[in-house]
Amino acid sequence: MLIAVVGCVLMTTVVWLAWMRQLNKNRIQAFEGTLAQHTQRSLQEFFVFLPVKWLIRGYLFACASLPLLAGLVWGGKAALVTLLVCVVSPPVLYRRMRNKRYRALQRQLPMLLMNLSNQLKSGMSMVNAVTSLFDEFEAPLGQEVNELIRQVRLGDDLPTALTDWQRRVPIFSITLVVQALTLGYRNGGQQSQVLRRLAENLGQQQKVRDRQQALSAQGRMQAWVLICMPLALFLLLNWMKPTHTAYLTNTLIGQVALGVAIVLTLIGAMMVKRILNTDDF
């Protein structure tokens, strides 16, 4: 029986490979180029420099091989679940890491503005004040500031480097900082006081966000309990009375009801997350 299954899988793989060779190679290359461009941009946000082509090929190989291995060991349902996890997990993980990085940047911005305000108050120019902050901050703000200084030293003017920073980190706090520094570079004026007031305002906004996080902690915990409780009850019932859960897994009506329940649970989780979200990104 196992030999027949392996033979069918190999024949299916050969047929798929033969069909893929008949596709337009330009479309495949265009798709690979678009995927590589998005992956490169995502990696650059975290200052990670890896060979994108091999990374994409490894990811596609994992999406093809892991579900196949799970299907041979545990069956078709395990293969479907493994494929879903392989497809969904990278975007979810990237979004989670990106939001964590943005929150850390928001916490460090008031310190950056206060240092710039002190430098400008001492009589330094805007460019010299920015370049004097090299290696003054920890990551992630230190990485962004060092990249900004590197672009200035390579010949870009300060507004161009600031615009690139705003494009790389598109959040409202960075937009305010970039606009303040750009106006100060082009028009001059009492920029020390402006940056100090902006630092105070960003600090107050961060305190409000922290207070919102504290007040909504109970709501977030209740949301996690409501989301995880149906799954926990299903697994417990499946362990204690497998014949009862068989109506959901082995019949068409039960499978449809189970799928609808999963979709409604995910929709509810997304709604709760949007309601309790305290970030500006």
From TrEMBL:
Phosphoprotein in keyword set: no
Gene3D superfamilies (UniProt xref): Type II secretion system (T2SS), domain F
Transmembrane portions of the chain: 74-94, 221-240, 252-272
UniProt topology in membrane: Multi-pass membrane protein
One cellular-component annotation, GO: plasma membrane
Domain Type II secretion system protein GspF: 113-236
Keyword Chloroplast listed: no
Keywords linked to the UniProt accession: Cell membrane, Membrane, Transmembrane, Transmembrane helix
One Pfam entry name: T2SSF
Subcellular location per the Swiss-Prot or TrEMBL entry: Cell membrane
Protein name, as recorded: Type II secretion system protein GspF domain-containing protein
Organism annotation: Idiomarina baltica
Lineage: Bacteria, Pseudomonadati, Pseudomonadota, Gammaproteobacteria, Alteromonadales
